[in-house]
């Protein structure tokens, strides 16, 4: 195999591309390029991609993962915020006519419109990406709140954040992010990616997480905004009881306290426990009871 035929994500070709374009890494964008083709293929495999799938990629970098996605999926739409990478991507991805690269910030993009404009609506829509550590949580929440029904989200992130997504109630890692994600998706930690396979090398290991939409949701909130606000508020001060967090969120006047007491008693939830002890279903039950109460 010649140098030119090696995968974009090989260490040799990555170095060649970086040298050819004189590219320096932007720490402000959390740029760490994965240089192990085997792992890149495993990421695509974790998404179970076929020509029945359209893929949204966030932060394609120099196209290492994009190449694997293009080889397996129907269409790939990649959003890249760094303008310097556009000519590189045009070069490295030139062999693939099923890839579209847009110079856009995912946090400012109308994802529903992008998906509608660039995909034909006849294929499943999945997200596969290596997320920047510093904005992993905002991107995940953006995806979940976008109004797009993603069939699967397979993303690489800091191992610690991955553990938070998959955490069980009562564990130290369990928090508002765990609840927000698990409400919509089944979370599976696919595998760990060592920090040594990145250029430049980050300080921590990464993990590949697969999020698959529930076929039948365990519970459904009658008001998604009330549910989201309740979850965030219940973890506002982790060391405090659920009661203290709820009164801080809804108010400490006697009428509000009486209403909260009534709701918690009806749902058989101990006001003295901490929010981390509640399951996703518990939060949904509580949110629905709050939504239905005239004084809350």
UniProtKB/TrEMBL annotation:
Annotated EC: 2.1.1.182
Enzyme class: transferase
Spans through the membrane: none
Keyword hit for Iron-sulfur: no
Keywords: Cytoplasm, Methyltransferase, RNA-binding, rRNA processing, S-adenosyl-L-methionine, Transferase
Keyword Nuclease part of the UniProt annotation: no
Binding site for S-adenosyl-L-methionine: 32, 34, 59, 80, 105, 130
PROSITE patterns, per database record: RRNA_A_DIMETH, SAM_RNA_A_N6_MT
A GO term, aspect molecular function: 16S rRNA (adenine(1518)-N(6)/adenine(1519)-N(6))-dimethyltransferase activity
Reactions catalysed, as given in the entry: adenosine(1518)/adenosine(1519) in 16S rRNA + 4 S-adenosyl-L-methionine = N(6)-dimethyladenosine(1518)/N(6)-dimethyladenosine(1519) in 16S rRNA + 4 S-adenosyl-L-homocysteine + 4 H(+); adenosine(2085) in 23S rRNA + 2 S-adenosyl-L-methionine = N(6)-dimethyladenosine(2085) in 23S rRNA + 2 S-adenosyl-L-homocysteine + 2 H(+)
Principal place of residence: cytoplasm
Organism domain of life: Bacteria
GO cellular component: cytosol
Pfam families linked: RrnaAD (PF00398)
Entry's localization field: Cytoplasm
Family the UniProt entry places it in: Belongs to the class I-like SAM-binding methyltransferase superfamily. rRNA adenine N(6)-methyltransferase family. RsmA subfamily.
PANTHER family: DIMETHYLADENOSINE TRANSFERASE, DIMETHYLADENOSINE TRANSFERASE-RELATED
Described function: Specifically dimethylates two adjacent adenosines (A1518 and A1519) in the loop of a conserved hairpin near the 3'-end of 16S rRNA in the 30S particle. May play a critical role in biogenesis of 30S subunits.
NCBIfam families for the chain: ksgA
Official protein name in the record: Ribosomal RNA small subunit methyltransferase A
Lineage of producing organism: Bacteria, Bacillati, Bacillota, Bacilli, Lactobacillales
């Amino acid at each position: 195999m010649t140098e030119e035929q090696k995968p974009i994500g090989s260490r040799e070709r990555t170095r060649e591309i970086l040298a050819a374009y004189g590219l320096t890494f932007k720490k402000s964008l959390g740029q760490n390029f994965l240089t192990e083709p085997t792992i890149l293929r495993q990421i695509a495999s974790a998404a179970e991609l076929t020509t029945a799938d359209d893929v949204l990629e966030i932060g394609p970098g120099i196209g290492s993962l994009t190449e694997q996605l293009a080889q397996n999926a129907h269409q790939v739409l990649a959003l890249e915020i760094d303008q310097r990478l556009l000519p590189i991507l045009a070069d490295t991805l030139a062999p693939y006519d099923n890839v579209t690269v847009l110079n856009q910030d995912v946090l400012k993009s109308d994802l529903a419109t992008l998906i509608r404009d660039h995909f034909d609506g006849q294929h499943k829509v999945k997200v596969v990406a290596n997320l920047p550590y510093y904005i992993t949580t905002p991107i995940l929440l953006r995806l979940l709140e976008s109004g797009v029904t993603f069939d699967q989200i397979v993303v690489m992130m800091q191992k610690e954040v991955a553990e938070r997504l998959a955490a069980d109630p009562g564990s130290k890692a369990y928090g508002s992010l765990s609840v927000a994600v698990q409400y919509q998706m089944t979370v599976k930690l696919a595998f760990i990616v060592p920090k040594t396979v990145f250029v430049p090398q980050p300080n921590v290991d990464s993990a590949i997480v697969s999020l698959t939409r529930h076929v039948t949701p365990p519970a459904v909130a009658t008001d998604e905004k009330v549910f989201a606000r309740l979850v965030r508020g219940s973890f506002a001060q982790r060391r405090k009881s659920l009661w203290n967090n709820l009164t801080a969120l809804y108010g400490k006047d006697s009428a509000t306290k009486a209403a909260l007491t009534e709701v918690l008693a009806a749902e058989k939830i101990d006001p003295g426990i901490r929010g981390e002890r509640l399951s996703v279903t518990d939060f949904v039950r509580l949110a629905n009871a709050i939504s239905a109460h005239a004084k809350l």
